Amino acid sequence: MAKNDSIKVKFTDEQLDAMKQGLQQVFSVINPIAPVLSSDDRRNYGSVADQNKLLINRSKSYMEQFPKLKPAFVNKAEFHRDFAALKEIGDLLILLSDMQRKLTYMKILLDHGNYQDALAFYRSVRYNPQEKEASAIPIYNDLKKYFPSGGAKTDGEGPNPSGPEPKFWLKDLIF
Asked: Which of 19, 114, 158, 171 has the highest CB neighbour number within 10 Å of its CB?
């Protein structure tokens, strides 16, 4: 493994197909029943805070223990169906969140490795024009635009190998 290669990832075609098919199956199940909420809808409905989740759980328990206290307009079967679906969706969201976190971490490490390799290539190309390697000059001229801060110039013979270092931004890694 290379010095800056902190992770090795190579999916087989079968693995990629299996992952894509699995995600497509999940999407095909939820797509017909998932509503599309506008920003106003999301603002109006909001999110149930933890304190209110406790209220829901406690109310469910009391409705089961004291069915005579349930208001007539509350459909107990619908409430239980929604409650069960909410738990199932919550469990799926935990799995999806964990999968997204793992994929994001893999992407960060892969991006970092590729970036370090690209920097090593740039440094090599930056050095080669000084060694009179003519084919490196157009490559260097193309790559140097990614480092707008410039740097110390030499006597016009080419780039300074101790010139500016490229900047690494975390925002470039996260999608």
From this structure: 158
